[in-house]
Amino acid sequence: MAILIKGGEVVSADKSYRADVYCNNGIIEAIGENLDVPAGTEVIDAGDLLVMPGGIDPHTHMQLPFMGTVASEDFFTGTSAGAAGGTTSIIDFVIPNPQQPLMDAYHQWMEWAEKSATDYGFHVAVTWWDESVYEDMGKLVHDHGVNSFKHFMAYKNAIMAEDETLINSFTRCLELGAMPTVHAENGDLVYHLQRKILERGITGPEGHPLSRPSEVEGEAANRAIRIAQALNVPLYCVHVSCEEALHAITDARNNGQRVYGEVLAGHLEIDDSVYQNENWEYAAAHVMSPPFRPKKHQDALWKGLQSGNLQTTATDHCCFCADQKAMGKDDFSKIPNGTAGVEDRMSVLWDAGVTTGKLTPNEFVAVTSTNTAKIFNMYPRKGAIEVGADADIVIWDPKGTRTISAKTHHQNIDFNIFEGRTVTGIAVHTLSQGKVVWTEGDLRTVKGAGKYVKRPAYSSAFEAVNKMRIHNEPKAVKRS
Ligand code: URQ
Ligand code: ZN
Ligand code: ZN
User: Fold this and answer.
1) End-to-end alpha carbon distance in the chain
2) CA-CA distance, 19 to 65, in Å (whole number)?
3) Where are the domains of the chain?
4) Taking Cα atoms as reference points, which of 347, 236, 225, 338 lies closest to residue 292?
5) Is 121 left (phi over 0), alpha (psi -120 to 50) or beta?
6) What is the number of alpha carbons within 13 Å of residue 106 lying toward its C-beta?
7) What is the CATH topology of the domain spanning 53-386+452-460?
8) Which of 144, 131, 117, 128 is CA-nearest to residue 437?
9) Looking at ligand 1, which residue's alpha carbon is closest to its atom 9?
10) Which end of the chain is more exposed for a tag (fewer CB within 10 A), N or C?
């Protein structure tokens, strides 16, 4: 199956230039002007369009069992919806229950993910600790292509990792050359504030942000960063939602510490007024953690993205429909946490970022694809328009528009946090493994076509950290 993408402007993270792109056998075989290709090659006319690396969403939760229910989006429908929006790879999460062997959970998620339409990888969560977790982390890195381990500092009495687990797991990550990542909210503080707010008789969704003010995230982000600093291990903070966490990351980076930050399209564009809506279902549909914040945090997060102190964008795509959200009808702390976004991230970021001048098209590619590929060691197989790279490509109309709605989206959820928003910047064609999976409104994904992406340990971040560690190795004082 050969495809020639003709006459477009290639936009990579560092440059833009006019060139044809020839894809064959799932990879990019040639890039250049007026390419000669075999007869019978399918041609896509990309005139006036941009040819970019397919989006990579480093934070999704397809069919996640959580808070007494299961997310409504599965790996096939979710990766298909991503393709419709220009995203061609996801990194999802294996989340073992406490005391569940990591390898058992990994095999369970791998089975669920077999139905994926486009490529996928996994971060594995460390939700408890003993010698077997230590061992399983080694197996996952050495034998299964996992190079990142997640730590939920929130969700007390469920999947929350205490400091001792963070220290043990971060230390193991350093040994293995794997990236530790954190959901940074102080779970004990959340639990305490939830009780206080419920005692005051506030049971509606407006109680959710009250129980997770931004200082709760700022404290945990700083704590995780300091633990990583003391252990000399890199750190990746997922869904940074507030200026306190951003400042902690920025200070650490200015101090030469290797800390990376991810921001969600939702947190960049939606504020906490949603929780004041009189319609319970509408407000509950926005319950996710960390919560949507007051407007000043959006402004700070955009500056974080523009300054390079936040490197990646994601969605935390974790879908619960109205009947599931209703589980918390009388108690906001029981509303399953999560919102959707995998189909809309790229358009929302182009509309809010590039058309406004906050981001250049090259920076857009960096924060929606290339930076994630580099941090999680998939580059240049992923996140690049280069000869030899996977032919995961989005052909983008920078002037095209569409109006986002749950009535028309491909996500398996009855709500869209960007409902009614008309965005500029749309995916016209999406290729996964060199095959067309989305073209001019026609979704052509195939269940099970997605492949598992093995990610080797020891990304460039580790080489640098190891050099620094050896260079600064403390030495015993010689005493006669
Ligand atoms: O915390 C997460 O990232 C998962 C459980 C999705 N839910 C959410 O509210 N972010
Ligand atoms: Zn989270
Ligand atoms: Zn998440």
Assistant:
1) 74
2) 45
3) 53-386+452-460
4) 338
5) beta
6) 22
7) TIM Barrel (3.20.20)
8) 117
9) 288
10) C
- Which of 351, 347, 343, 297 has its CA nearest to residue 319? 343
| DSSP state letters, 151-219 | EES--TTTTPPPHHHHHHHHHHHHHHT-EEEEE---HHHHHHHHHHHHHTT--STTHHHHHS-HHHHHH
* Degrees, nearest 5: CA angle 234-120-125: 45
Site residues for ligand 1, CB cut-off 6 Å: 61, 66, 183, 288-289, 316, 318, 337-338
- Report the distance separating Cα 167 and Cα 173, nearest Å: 10
Question: What band does 70 get if pLDDT is binned at 50, 70 and 90?
Answer: very high
The residue-averaged pLDDT of 350-365 equals 98
Query: If you measure from the C-alpha of residue 182 to the centroid of ligand 2, how many angstroms do you get, rounded to a whole number?
Result: 8
Q: Crossing angle for the helix pair 163-176 and 214-231, nearest 10 degrees?
A: 50
d(CA 141, CA 147): 6
Q: Whose structure tokens read 């460039």?
A: 460
What's the token pair of residue 262?
């991810």
pTM: 0.97
- Amino acid at site 364: F
Cα–Cα distances in angstroms (integers) from residue 251 to residues 219, 226, 229, 254, 296, in the given order = 14, 11, 12, 5, 19
What is the rounded average pLDDT of the residues 253-272?
Answer: 98
**19: amino acid identity, one letter:** A
Angle in degrees, CA 125, 93, 27, rounded to 5: 130
Please state the atom number of ligand 1 nearest to the C-alpha of residue 239: 3
Distance 97 CA to ligand 1 centre (A): 15
Torsion of CA 123, 126, 132, 138, to 10 degrees: 30
Dihedral through CA 162, CA 165, CA 169, CA 171, nearest 10?
100
- Nearby residues of 279 by Cβ (< 8 Å), 6 or more positions away: none
Average pLDDT for the chain:
97
Cα–ligand 1 centroid distance for 363 (angstroms): 27
Q: What local confidence, expressed as pLDDT, does residue 406 receive?
A: 98
CB 310 within 8 A of CB 246: yes
3-to-25, 50, 54, 435 alpha-carbon distances in Å: 10, 16, 16, 8
Does residue 327 contact residue 335 with C-beta atoms inside 8 Å? yes
Task: Look at residue 326 and tell me whether its pLDDT is greater than 80.
Answer: yes
Q: What is the pLDDT of residues 218-250, one digit of tens each?
A: 999 999 999 999 999 999 999 999 999 999 999
